[in-house]
Amino acid sequence: MNKLIKYIIIFILFSLFGWTYENILLNKKSQDTTLTEIIGINAPFLLIYGVGGILIFYTYSNFPHMKLLSKIIIASILINSVECISGKLSYYIRGYHTWNYNKCFYPLCDGYISLFTIILWTLMITMILLIFSYLDKKNK
């Protein structure tokens, strides 16, 4: 399969998963209207999760020589950096906090990330990288 198509599929799946996770499992009504503002479609997608999926897949597929732990660390740094930067950008552009982890254990980056969420993302990244590895071995 073409690499670009893989990235598009990953982006769509993770954006859908993010929306499902936040709106159904956490029972949060998403304030993210980015997709509606960009293309005028109100769809069940959270784009930041799609970007995260691409970063995780990029880390997995472009560093085959690295051990799993190294990939987990790199992906975790990337994901949490994107969450911090996009949170600050969102506030700068829209004037409100799209998400806020100030009530979580040890908030960082003005509450856009926290030690608690870093640990959760790292566990999720580990699970996703293990799934990618399993699927890769299964398809060989």
Automatic annotation (TrEMBL):
Keyword terms of this UniProt record: Membrane, Transmembrane, Transmembrane helix
Segments passing through the bilayer: 7-26, 38-60, 113-135
InterPro entries attached to this UniProt entry: CmpB_TMEM229
One Pfam family matching this protein: ABC_trans_CmpB
Name of this chain's protein: ABC-transporter type IV
Gene source species: viral metagenome
